[in-house]
Amino acid sequence: MSRPFHFKQFSVRQQNSPMKVGTDGALLGAWAPCSENTQRVLDIGTGTGLIALMIAQRAPNAHITAIEPNPDALKDAQANFEESPFAERLHLMPCRLQDFSSAEDFDLIVSNPPFYTQGTRPEHHGRAHARHNMDLSAHQLLSSAGMLAQGGRIAAIYPPEIFGDLISLAPKLGLQLSHRCDVRPLAGKNVHRVLFSFEKNSGKSIDPKRKELIIEADTRHSYSHEFKHLLKDYYLHL
Fold this sequence. Notes:
Layout: E1 5-6, E2 11-12, H1 23-31, E3 40-44, H2 50-58, E4 63-67, H3 71-83, E5 90-93, E6 106-111, H4 125-131, H5 138-143, E7 148-158, H6 160-169, E8 175-186, E9 193-200, E10 209-216, H7 225-231
Parallel strand pairs: 3-4, 3-6, 4-5, 6-7, 8-10
Antiparallel strand pairs: 1-2, 7-9, 8-9
């Protein structure tokens, strides 16, 4: 049984969810563009609820709708939301993106999506769906931007090759790249993830802000200054 993952302001149970707390989700939760003015957030495929909880900590006026189709993950997310100091601002819905609709637009849509398309799938059925894009393709995720308010943003994390495909798709959906952060596991290693946000076209031209983040400085668990700065409000040991 997996132990709870304790953060500075909340804890994440993960004994039921097929996908546990990981670096990708933590990076996105701390990096996704939001502020005190962010009012409505949609977290697609919330899993344990990690990203929704991190956004709730960062954006004190945000009300967050988290959707998740996996019943095991829902058990963990529900408990994590109820036990957090942000419970009143977190709403969990048991459904897929394809079955979700909202009468109101969102200021931010965020997702740590499944992205594996080939290779050996895990024997655990829930983990297979969580890791492979059998239920949620990158195209489907980006198309959810139709639920964004004007000037709203959609933020996610993908391998660079999938991000490259989304760059060509975004303009067709009325989106412009606003932020990009290339993530390397170690200095000198290839970029293995891209954090990005697209903004719903408001008629203005956007000059995208681009940065790079190295996770580990020299050796395993020797975190870089940039990583520590990004996660310092969350990780107990930073």
